[in-house]
TrEMBL record:
Pfam families noted in UniProt: YmdB (PF13277)
InterPro entries in the record: Metallo-depent_PP-like, YmdB-like
Name of the featured protein: TIGR00282 family metallophosphoesterase
Superkingdom of origin organism: Bacteria
Lineage: Bacteria, Bacillati, Bacillota, Bacilli, Bacillales
SUPFAM superfamilies reported for this sequence: Metallo-dependent phosphatases
Amino acid sequence: MNVLFIGDIVGKVGREAVKKVLPTLISKYQPHIIIANGENAASGRGITRPIATEFFEWGIHGITMGNHTWDNKNIFEWIEDEPRIVRPANFSEAAPGQGSTIIKANGKELAIINLQGRTFLPPIDCPFAMADHLIATVQKRTKAILIDFHAEATSEKIALGWHLDGKASLVVGTHTHVQTNDDTILPQGTAYITDVGMVGSKEGVLGMEKESVLYRFQTQMPTRFVVDEGAWHLHAVHVKIDELTGHATAIEKIRLTEEQWLLL
């Protein structure tokens, strides 16, 4: 099974980049299932139903979220009706939506679990215990399992990777928007990367206009961050999974700038 996971899509620039590049990625990697993190898709904070619908129309099969899940308040009105979107499973039991799902596409099945870290983020339920619980449940359907761990601390992400080695097919980190260079297959067969990266402007700060971010750092005064509209870059990973064992056999980072894409 070929799986393509696209990093955090940030704002309109990120959405337009995905729309342009996705056909090229599909042609090159022939993914059976495509997953993307969409928690920053709407002006950098949250997601809307029309945006989610666009993603599905473009060929994305499932969407993961993170700490900005609830920033667009109308999500409460529709998330229960959209089984292809998962929010962190270790949110409160009162939270609407679901933390895991089974994506079916092109004759394949992939379980998706979304988790959020607790280091430097709001205190929530243990992602390690929740991962164990949900993996035991979805393994009854499929051995191909993807974990999107939306977390701040690299140490927490690496620790979860080791904890889930041999239990999940793929553990990808999201949230920090900077692609790390530690893509690997762990000893028991789990593909791992600390952070996939982002899709959005490479001329700002993590996709936001640099002026407001600089002002915040230099003055410690509150200011509103706005999505930057400069030239984009796109980060993703392509992973091959042995469906019989659930183990990954290959992982490849994808990093593409707008300038590179224009030369293709």
